[in-house]
């Protein structure tokens, strides 16, 4: 009787271990697919997975080594990064992809010249290696050389015009330099190739709003509205619609028809915002203050706008 | 004329938790103080107590619309709680970059319009440690349209030892993983930017 029970228990424990292991592996995969930069968590889960369950991972282990290595660099865990790098070097000798990881480690150690040489050697063998070129631009960014980074990135995009990540990076570099016109251009490229992406629409609207002026405000309102059409739960787009419509309505230059239309848009947005807060606040005491604050904020803005 | 800004432990620790949650991003936020009653003519001796910190954004900071929403919303919330927006903090994307940029100066100036003793605070990430051995802020005061730098030391705190102890403990415990900023709130309205859980933890450690 006791032996049977013991066997059952053992079987159950084993199942639990399997569940834990698959959960960890799936978490890592999800974070990889979503491109999450939650490096501390990746290191926590990944290190345990590598140390305790390497044999069960099969071929997944190589991509996990890569993922954990990059996260380890983020967390200044050079010991862990080095271990992963060695495993990858052993398995894939002469690989460009692993060479790039070695370069990233040098970057993390702020050995920018050595890192640059590493990427140059990749580019000598393979001048079309986009990853190496982008790492070189990242080095410029890390050194605070924004003007050079922008120049290099523009050159890169002339060759690789379809690289969305690069267009997005460039738009951010321009925004940080307060060059909103050029940032808008980058986002226009992204919207053209991704017409259903509500985030690009919304970011474009934010850039136009920041640029200022009546024409840009109207454009921003249109794109906030478009973002909402693509995703009616985008709160930034909803707030943005409210703000842009309110500002247009309050502008002394607009005629009565435009003013009336924008007051309507702002009123619609107000209702939607209130609804969204009511829905979110249901049940929680803390959120009551948020709901109240939003209501009062919208009321007070309407008073100044009318 | 010297303004004097004292940090409450909770305000200081939330600033650092925000920076710790997004080490690869620029972050910014607001500081709020208790609204003073009518000031007497010669009262430069009354220090302003920064009682709380509202973390705002992470990543690309230099866009206007959501900042305007946050400022207006938090202003309304302040009025209900007899607070006033008293300062702005920013930690830049690059660790070694601890000087205020044009954007920080603009936001600081905007806040100074409503509160003349507003402070602009930059976080110096190069001195950021788990042990929090020294205050890592640089404070800028608005004088005649220019920002003048003032040193931040233990005197700038209501109780530096307490601030150090609490901040260090919360960093060790990875409380920053649950810190909510206004960006998180816009992603999901149920996320509460007043951070009641962290406030509770701070009180427990006091």
TrEMBL record, chain A:
InterPro entries: EMC2-like, TPR-like_helical_dom_sf, TPR_EMC2, TPR_rpt. SUPFAM superfamilies: TPR-like. The keyword Membrane applies. Keywords: Endoplasmic reticulum, Membrane, Repeat, TPR repeat. Belongs to the EMC2 family. Part of the endoplasmic reticulum membrane protein complex (EMC) that enables the energy-independent insertion into endoplasmic reticulum membranes of newly synthesized membrane proteins. This is ER membrane protein complex subunit 2. It comes from Oncorhynchus mykiss.
UniProtKB/TrEMBL annotation, chain B:
Transmembrane segments: none annotated. InterPro entries: EMC8/9, MPN. One of its GO terms (cellular component) is EMC complex. Residues 5-146 form the MPN domain. PROSITE patterns: MPN. Component of the ER membrane protein complex (EMC). EMC8 and EMC9 are mutually exclusive subunits of the EMC complex. Belongs to the EMC8/EMC9 family. This is ER membrane protein complex subunit 8. It comes from Oncorhynchus mykiss.
């Amino acid at each position: 009787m006791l032996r049977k029970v013991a066997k059952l228990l053992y079987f159950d424990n084993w199942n639990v271990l399997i569940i834990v292991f698959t959960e960890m592996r799936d978490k890592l995969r999800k974070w990889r697919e979503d491109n999450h930069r939650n490096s501390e968590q990746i290191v926590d889960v990944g290190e345990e997975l590598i140390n305790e369950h390497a044999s069960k991972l099969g071929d997944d282990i190589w991509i996990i080594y890569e993922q954990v290595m990059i996260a380890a660099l983020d967390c200044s865990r050079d010991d862990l990064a080095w271990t992963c790098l060695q495993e990858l070097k052993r398995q894939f000798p002469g690989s460009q992809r692993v060479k790039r990881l070695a370069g990233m480690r040098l970057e993390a150690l702020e050995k920018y010249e050595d890192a640059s040489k590493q990427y140059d050697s990749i580019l000598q063998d393979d001048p079309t290696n986009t990853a190496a070129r982008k790492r070189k631009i990242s080095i410029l960014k890390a050194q605070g050389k924004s003007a050079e980074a922008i120049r290099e990135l523009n050159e890169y995009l002339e060759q690789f015009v379809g690289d969305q990540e690069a267009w997005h990076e460039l738009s951010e570099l321009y925004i940080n330099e307060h060059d909103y016109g050029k940032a808008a251009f980058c986002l226009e490229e992204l919207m053209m190739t991704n017409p259903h992406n509500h985030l690009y629409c919304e970011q474009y609207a934010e850039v136009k709003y920041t640029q200022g002026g009546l024409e840009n405000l109207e454009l921003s309102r249109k794109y906030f509205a478009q973002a909402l059409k693509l995703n009616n739960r985008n709160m930034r787009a909803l707030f943005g619609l409210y703000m842009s419509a309110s500002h247009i309505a309050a502008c002394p230059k607009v005629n009565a028809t435009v003013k009336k239309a924008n007051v309507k848009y702002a009123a619609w947005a107000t209702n939607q915002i209130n609804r969204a807060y009511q829905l979110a606040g249901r049940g929680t005491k803390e959120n009551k203050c948020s709901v109240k604050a939003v209501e009062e904020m919208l009321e007070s803005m309407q008073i100044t706008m009318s | 004329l010297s303004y004097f800004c004292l940090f409450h432990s909770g305000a200081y620790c939330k600033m650092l938790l925000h920076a710790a949650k997004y080490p690869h991003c620029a972050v910014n936020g607001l500081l709020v103080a208790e609204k003073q009653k009518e000031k007497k003519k010669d009262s430069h001796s009354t220090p302003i107590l920064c009682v709380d910190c509202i973390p705002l954004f992470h990543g690309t900071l230099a866009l206007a619309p959501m900042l305007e929403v946050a400022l207006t919303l938090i202003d309304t919330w302040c009025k209900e709680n007899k607070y006033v927006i008293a300062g702005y903090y920013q930690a830049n994307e690059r660790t070694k970059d601890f000087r205020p940029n044009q954007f920080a100066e603009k936001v600081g100036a905007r806040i100074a319009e409503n509160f003349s003793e507003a402070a602009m605070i930059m976080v110096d990430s190069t001195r950021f440690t788990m042990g929090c051995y020294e205050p890592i802020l640089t404070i800028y005061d608005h004088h005649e349209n220019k920002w003048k730098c003032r040193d931040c030391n233990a005197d700038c705190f209501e109780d530096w030892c307490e601030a150090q102890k609490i901040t260090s403990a919360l960093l060790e415990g990875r409380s920053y993983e649950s810190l909510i900023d206004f960006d998180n709130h816009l992603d999901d309205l149920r996320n509460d930017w007043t951070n009641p859980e962290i406030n509770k933890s701070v009180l427990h450690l006091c």
